[in-house]
# Entry
Amino acid sequence: MSTRATISDVAKQSGVSISTVSRVLNGTAVVDEETAERVRNAIEALSYTPHAAARTLASRRTNTIGLLLLDIGGEFYTPMLRGIEAVASEAGFDLLIHSTITAASGKVTRRALGEHNTDGLLVFTGALDVAELTRLNEIGFPVVLLHESAPDSLDIPVITIENQSGAQKVVDHLIDAHGCKRIVYLRGPADNEDSAQREKGYRQSLRKHNLPYDPCLVAQGGYEPNQAHATVAQMLSDGLEFDAIFTGDDDNAVGVIQALREAGRRIPEDVAVAGFDDSLFARILTPPLTTVRAPIEQVGRESVRQLIRLIRGEEVETSLVLPTELVIRQSCGCNRQ
Amino acid sequence: MSTRATISDVAKQSGVSISTVSRVLNGTAVVDEETAERVRNAIEALSYTPHAAARTLASRRTNTIGLLLLDIGGEFYTPMLRGIEAVASEAGFDLLIHSTITAASGKVTRRALGEHNTDGLLVFTGALDVAELTRLNEIGFPVVLLHESAPDSLDIPVITIENQSGAQKVVDHLIDAHGCKRIVYLRGPADNEDSAQREKGYRQSLRKHNLPYDPCLVAQGGYEPNQAHATVAQMLSDGLEFDAIFTGDDDNAVGVIQALREAGRRIPEDVAVAGFDDSLFARILTPPLTTVRAPIEQVGRESVRQLIRLIRGEEVETSLVLPTELVIRQSCGCNRQ
DNA sequence: CTATACTATGAAAGCGCTTTCTGAAAACGC
DNA sequence: GCGTTTTCAGAAAGCGCTTTCATAGTATAG
# Structure
């Protein structure tokens, strides 16, 4: 507080005009090397840092990108955040984060992130309503979506992962390697695009292997251990028969494994289990979880790269789908000790 | 982009001066209700949002708090972030996040977060060097430290948790309930204050029970499964005898359990294990981990509260220590099925 | 040696707000 | 009914920068 050095302090100290200081700061024009050196010394001596808001106001650039999340606390976000932060920081952008879930309670619908405080927005599945998305699109504001495609009417790039083929690979494996015939699929939250894609992959695999599609075998897991636990417990008490569960994501797998164990079903002898994501805890589950590796950190990195291109007015892919990879551990029946 | 509405557009549209619009916006003075209504309508009609930088520049308030982390990807941060975001957002502050670990590679030492773009800073253990901390303290800039106290010379509030008593409780439990006599303690990274405190608690408990302190039983775990794994494997191959491991944190526990299992030691029959933090995965380990619950989200919440008080110039506790709680599961030998 | 083109710099106009100062009009007091 | 307060609103001065425009000085060409 007190007396921050301003650009004119630096100018005075080095005996030049503020224009010249600005030029040295930004490299926007050639400055005599000797003069530049004097300016740099003054900056150092005054430990001067340009005032971000003043810069923004004058240059009409915030040098900040915004990240709009549903729930910042989700485990899923951690690697994504790491990727986003790394690329943003490397490119000299600040990162403003807002979680819309906490905002829901707030009375004032202050637009937390937008044209007024960022150069562009990263929007995670469901974190922004279509109306606002449309508004941003109309004023040509740079936005990149993560894990969910935009309404067709809007031209907004999307970064996502190979959900369908990933799911197909893991279900293929359950069938081909372990002879599973009745495979449960646990959906994510309603409207979740990842989940819908994975379900497609699941059905595709069944079709490919001439296995019947039984709607009873598909149910809600909610990407959430408790719900998955309840669902599986219900299935078991209903006497539903199955020899494998593709849990939709790894979080579900935690609840699934617990429910199976409580019912005395052995994994993988009685029921094979496979997840999706390859979360940090997938390998520490017992048995270690066979799953599909989702390149989440990479999604974070790419999304920022695309957003920055957009901000710079460069060409951008409308959609980027990052590859997933089958990770075979033991919950499917492989590698038994 | 294109043509954002500005305050003067709103003023024109509602037939008042920009001063009045500003007053309606901020409630800084009484405005005739009828006039105010007209202004509000204009704001709505133009879907006007005040330009943050202009506001900042004029009012000398950024309405933003900065969070300086070492590694944003750490699992540990997730609940903390949730707490921080929730309180900040509720209080109308934006949250600017920067991870210093990624910045290390950058050539330019741009001060990512500071007086120039935030009203105050939350600094996590080790994320800022003492020089910068001192500078901020000297200019009276609001800073709150998380999980590490400031150098004595600086008067900076700290939010931390009851590490020592938490550690003591869990070691007490290992001794009292399970008769453990030779308990290993795995340290966190060097200089980690949490770890040092927990070690104190460990030693205190030994002393209280008249158990000898054997330096061989204390080693590096690094809060990191691989290192913990290596350390324990080494201890085992050295033929070191012990009947329990207090793993320092839950991350370590993952490596510890694996190492013990590989050596054919049963948990908890041969070796009892206990962690610290109560991470999300503590309950899904096999066996479920006995640990100490650290109120990490609470730390996040409190830190923001304190920081906001500081920003407002209110009185602040110099140090806040949040309580920890023993969580007994099965890795210590309790609740065996 | 003059005309032309650079080069390096400064002066000054904003960017979109907040806030102080000032004043007109309405309300009040006696 | 006149002076005094109160209420409401506008004018204008910045906040600390970037950027355009102008210009002095210097180099280059013919």
Remarks:
- The two ends of chain B are 64 Å apart (CA to CA).
- Residues 16-20, 23, 29-32, 35, 54, 56-60 of chain B lie near DNA strand D (CB under 10 Å from a C1').
- Chain B touches chain A through 60 residues (CB under 8 Å).
